[in-house]
């Protein structure tokens, strides 16, 4: 229970423009919990909620998209279990203009995964992206207060609650969807993950097949070519393999970016590409040196089998990188 009910103060409720036109997806606060949390003069009990996603304004979305969101939420709620959580503390958000947000914090271990799955569904089924101006801090806003004004609550005792409804708030309209049972078919994001895992396994098999063919061809060329051509042949061979591996990586799916804005996705892909290119450059430069290291003599003619073994050993870091993506090279 709460430590004590705050006395009436200069608190304010949800700003009128946001209440009239904003579109948000929320978890509804149970009435008995809302009565316990309600602050006199602050956000009214029936308006207390935990925001999952902000979608802008109803005017920007239009009724067609809003209906797509409703259908997405209806399907999502039917396969998602009610969520157990706890109110665990108090906090505030300071904003550059206007009043601060006074809230109580919410702890729910399964909440982040639920939200990520919801974002994925919204992107796939409704073609909508969430706002990514700040991170996700689970909370229930109890009042809007002036900068420097004391929080309505000094502290709260841990308070158990049970979120059982997923709701779409479009201005004054509240569409409520009861959370059902999660023991149904896999969610689209889960299906995407399963597909990505399958593609990842297939990619590993494909890499092994490419390496086998590549090793055979390069080993034969090294065996048949004059010793003075070895450096050029090895360099060209690894450059070619580098290009093939990089192209395969760029073609792979990226579930981690599902739900991001186009700008955020582009930035994430660019950063990932720079990281992958750095890794591959180091891998192949090291591999090329390893193949030609410790030859009996510069003019030695090695059998195909020995060249194959040298090439195969040089690719060990590549396979380790492909499986862990966290390989360190000295």
From TrEMBL:
Q: Which Pfam families match?
A: 2_5_RNA_ligase2 (PF13563)
Q: Which UniProt keywords apply?
A: Ligase
| GO MF, one annotated term | ligase activity
Q: What is this protein called?
A: 2'-5' RNA ligase
Source species: Deinococcus peraridilitoris (strain DSM 19664 / LMG 22246 / CIP 109416 / KR-200)
